[in-house]
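Posting this for the archive.
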Amino acid sequence: MPTASNSRAFTLFELLIVVLLIGILYGVFVHKLTRPPVANSDKLTLKNIKSFLSDFTFKRKAEIICLEPCKTCNVYLDGKKAKTDEFSLFKSAPNVYFPDNFGQVRTISFLPISDKNGAINNVCFKFSLFNNKSSSHFAVESEGKYYLFNPYMKNVKESKSFSDLSAFFDNSTLLPSDKRDYDH
């Protein structure tokens, strides 16, 4: 004769409901926590572009590539377009500068890229952050300001003067100035 028990077990239906609720919560909350940051043009600027890209997970490099006419930009991780929203980083196409072999600061352009359909797209801006935390090295003129991108772990500098570019690209300070420094 079965004895009456005060303890009650869960039914299969109740267990299914609990598992379903846990699955829904996991899908909603954990997915939001593990998904890459959404590019927000209100928060992303040329000054914080390095820290923005460093939030992504990548093996070799993370890039921001803006296509002409420089109204849309995307994040690329290890050469593949990330699952983020398109965003705008510029109001108009920026000028990007780098010194030539003679030390003269010149405007540079970027190589075009092809999309998954094979169409060629012109690039107006491309910034790369590598896994060793080094990055692109150039200066960008946008909206009357100059942004100086150091290739190493230094922050982006902002300037209002074109003359600061020559000093920024001057590598003579890296070379020894005394002959004795060469003798070893």
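The helical segments are 12-34, 49-54, 163-168. The longest strand covers residues 123-130.
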